[in-house]
Amino acid sequence: MWKPSERLMDTIRHYASFPATGVSLRQMVQFGDRSSTGMRLPIALQMPGPAVIDYHLGTLFRASQFLSEELPIRLAHRVQDLGELPDGLSEMPSIKKVQDWYAQSFEEIITLPRPSLTQEVRARLLRSSRTNGGASKILSETTQNPSVREGQYRSSPSSAAYTNGNGKAAASGRRYFFPSDDHGDWPPELRDYNERFAKTLQTIKRRHDSVVTTVAQGILEWKRNCQRMQIDSTVQSFLDRFYMSRIGIRMLIGQHIALTEQSHVQHPNYVGIICTKTNVRDVALEAIENARFVCEDYYGLFDAPKVQLICKEDLNFMYVPGHLSHMLFETIKNSLRAVVEIHGADKENFPVTKVIVAEGKEDITIKISDEGGGIPRSAIPLVWTYMYTTVEQTPNLDPDFDKSDFKAPMAGFGYGLPISRLYARYFGGDLKLISMEGYGTDVYLHLNRLSSSSEPLQ
Ligand SMILES: Nc1ncnc2c1ncn2[C@@H]1O[C@H](COP(=O)(O)OP(=O)(O)OP(=O)(O)O)[C@@H](O)[C@H]1O
Ligand SMILES: [Mg+2]
């Protein structure tokens, strides 16, 4: 089994002394290569200037360079964080295992050989493409994430001195999106490096697939060890930062792999894994269908409680469809479970759960309204804590059970709501819950459509 050397741990400590640099959805989507795809960016993102700009290779290389520094910083914070958990939690075998994954991935990135480039190529890489420089500067600006208190998801107490990683990083010239002058040919080393880098990222992404289940396993081991029922606020905020950071790292990695593979070229509405025209109705219909299917399966129902969707057909916005479907699936699944449990699985006609989508200038808000009996007021704060569930027997955690994501069949892990809220907040949205005990629950999913807000910094 792989173990980090002392020297590697020293390097990790060094990297962890730097703050992470937040990237916004807008910055991520600027890689849309309009020349070869004919893609139209949303009005707000259309840049003046000639339409034919092929800034792919050099720009992608610059992004690879950015990530080859940024990802190790983020990974290093996680290694440290995992090593500083209270009350022996750090010593749990599953936590150690995850810590080693982070250290190993860190090592793989920092030891990846860089290409040797001529002075001329370096200079050209640094030169911003003239047509884009001005516009991209405006677009690259990130704003404070409205759903997050400053420093809320910050790594570790040791980084408390930093106020804003973005400002600091900008001063040192580190930037995710930098349109370089891509007219003409680049040396093959550039493409080679991009490909090697993307391959490394792929290995890393796969290694970390089962992080959520394995950390959850670690918490269970620890709870059993010290006979705790609930996790305290230190562990809760650790998990919040940890999973938030994971969302960010996976977003950057997933985006970069997709951009390198150019898979978005085949689909005009996609830039990497971001869909510039995510159709809310389509995503919601699919989530409803999946949640109902799981519900029928779990309770042995012929027909799961109905869900009514109220949404304009042509409501599109820029988002990551995978994130949206995750949040909707989890919240609808919760509603269906509550409805079945309160009315009994043998009831003929369940009350209908309503999913209402509203389009505002700032937000798209989705309300999931059920008549599942609600939640007692005293339990409301608990629903946001990890591992809080009203399922009697938490199903066995099998790390191989669903490698790609943490989707439990019906319920029972107490991760559905807190993780969904992190996804919402990641791009400046939020998830809120209001309950009427004795009647039902309303969940409000706010999605920020301006999307200039920075990732919550870690
Ligand atoms: N719409 C709802 N109506 C009533 N109770 C709810 C509703 N949504 C959530 N809850 C309560 O909050 C708890 C936590 O929900 P959460 O989705 O985080 O975890 P879970 O559903 O128990 O497990 P899983 O991780 O598999 O989703 C649930 O166990 C349930 O008691
Ligand atoms: Mg749930």
UniProtKB/TrEMBL annotation:
Q: List the EC numbers from the record.
A: 2.7.11.-
Disordered: region residues: 132-169
TM annotation in the entry: none
Q: Where is the composition biased (Polar residues)?
A: 132-166
Where in or outside the cell is it found? Mitochondrion matrix
User: What PROSITE patterns does the annotation carry?
Assistant: HIS_KIN
The protein, known as? Protein-serine/threonine kinase
Q: Name one GO biological process term.
A: regulation of glucose metabolic process
> What's this protein's family per the entry?
Belongs to the PDK/BCKDK protein kinase family.
Q: Which InterPro entries does UniProt cross-reference here?
A: AK/P_DHK_N_sf, BCDHK/PDK_N, BCKD/PDK, HATPase_C_sf, HATPase_dom, His_kinase_dom, Sig_transdc_His_kin-like_C
The alphabetical list of record keywords is: ATP-binding, Kinase, Mitochondrion, Nucleotide-binding, Pyruvate, Transferase
Q: Which SUPFAM superfamilies has this protein been placed in?
A: alpha-ketoacid dehydrogenase kinase, N-terminal domain, ATPase domain of HSP90 chaperone/DNA topoisomerase II/histidine kinase
Pfam families referenced in this protein's UniProt entry, alphabetically: BCDHK_Adom3, HATPase_c
Which reactions are catalysed by this chain? Answer: L-seryl-[pyruvate dehydrogenase E1 alpha subunit] + ATP = O-phospho-L-seryl-[pyruvate dehydrogenase E1 alpha subunit] + ADP + H(+)
At the highest ranks, the source species' classification is: Eukaryota, Fungi, Dikarya, Ascomycota, Pezizomycotina
What SMART domains does this protein map onto?
Answer: HATPase_c
> GO cellular-component terms in the record?
mitochondrial matrix
What GO molecular-function term can you cite, just one? ATP binding
Q: Tell me where in this chain the Histidine kinase domain is found.
A: 324-451
Keyword Transferase in annotation: yes
